[in-house]
Hints:
Blueprint: H1 4-17, E1 21-23, H2 25-34, E2 39-45, H3 54-69, E3 73-77, H4 80-87, H5 91-95, E4 99-103, H6 113-127
Parallel strand pairs: 2-3
Antiparallel strand pairs: 1-4, 2-4
Helix pairs in contact: 1-6
Amino acid sequence: xxxxxxxxxxxxxxxxxxxxxxxxxxxxxxxxxxxxxxxxxxxxxxxxxxxxxxxxxxxxxxxxxxxxxxxxxxxxxxxxxxxxxxxxxxxxxxxxxxxxxxxxxxxxxxxxxxxxxxxxxxxxxxxxxxxxxxxxxxxx
Length: 140
């Protein structure tokens, strides 16, 4: 099986090409509130600069709880800049790439193999009591 980091990168790029990515804590919270069934996967990104940001930590706790309650797979990455390099195409996305959602395709007929591998990885991690596993994104 390929690394979870490589699968995450592939899933993000695929979702981005199909306009199924939501970048930003507030934008993600809005989608989760309005249509939680549309959310397939959640990525939380933290870097050293924001480790002491209490408001962000509270948002993360709420997002994690929401994901657990709605059976949404969730992972954490520690290199927000690398995440931005993969998904960021607008200047404002660089500021708030702490949360990235992958939504389901509108027609529901398509499955991404990389995303399926990530769901399996998350499921296996939960069996080991690692509820929000950390994934390292691959370099370019």
